Sequence to fold (365 residues):
Amino acid sequence: MAKVSAVKHIEYLKEIIPLTGKYCNLQYLTDDPADYDEKNALTQSALGLQEAYLTKIAGNLSNYITDIIENSTLLLEYDPNYSYENGGDENVAYEGYDDYEIDEVAAMDDSSWKVRKGAANVLEALVKSGIAIQRNFKENIIQELVKCLREHDENTKYDIIQCLGSYLSSMVFVNEEQNDSAIKIKKMSSMAIDVMDNVLKDLMATIISNLKSNNENLVTKTLELLPTIALMGAGEVIGEFSNLKPSFDNSCFNANTNTNNTIIFFKFLSQLFSSATSSEEYEDIISDILNYIKLGITHKFYLVAIEALKSASCLVPILASNPGANSKLISSLYQMILPKFLEKSGTLLFLSKKLESFILFLLLD
Fold:
């Protein structure tokens, strides 16, 4: 009901929000193990109500934001029947379940995912609402979301990844000094870079693991994080490229690949190149990168070819930092784009001509 009539509830929020807070609370869920499933369902409903209000009338919730953040962040880890410390091999009782035998708890049809999923949705609605979030809260939320990417329920993990992506996107901006409207290179705020320094290594490790999933939707959602992550630490990403490559091959360039994955991959490369300072950073992976760009430029789908050409446009300035040493690579790129002059597409022709002019200038310099 709140999704369609939230505005009519404004005058009652001072009663409704504290009431939902009673159930969107870790203590409520853990004080008494009785009615486990019912409590999880009730908390899910209360979280859903908070999500609806944040989506529709967030400006009226400013007095409650701190409590909503603190409770939702704690609920992201509410998983009483699963032990991450033991790699998920053993079921353990959450504090407050001492009266239950562990086997009885493990035998439950565990519904705690409803709580974690609801908490992720609340936090995502919060960041999308445009409400200012204090730096310390945003740092804590991002660190918690990265930690919770280990989530074992794939539907819940999907929502956590989506939520994390929204928080990362909230900290980037398009470089207004970019003159080429065809390629919008984003930049991270200095605050974002500081925040991500603490979690980037763990985040990359989890991404490598998630990209091996058999769940295609989960793989696509994980890939969507990469363009933004490339802005945080190109060095960390380049260092992990060899570990990422098998997943890239399988999820972006396989015969049965979702074309959207391939487009995301080239957007990721463009952002990665925009964060580099010299061609030396890419020495160990440049061969793989050029092979990917060639596959993209010659791809049968028009949108993939465009994104591959954009990636090449971002790579050329890096190679131009040392044109003498990179002349063979530059020439190789030139040979890749020549066939695109036969294309009738205006965008492909424009990007190809722009690349050709730049590359010829380098080769003749």
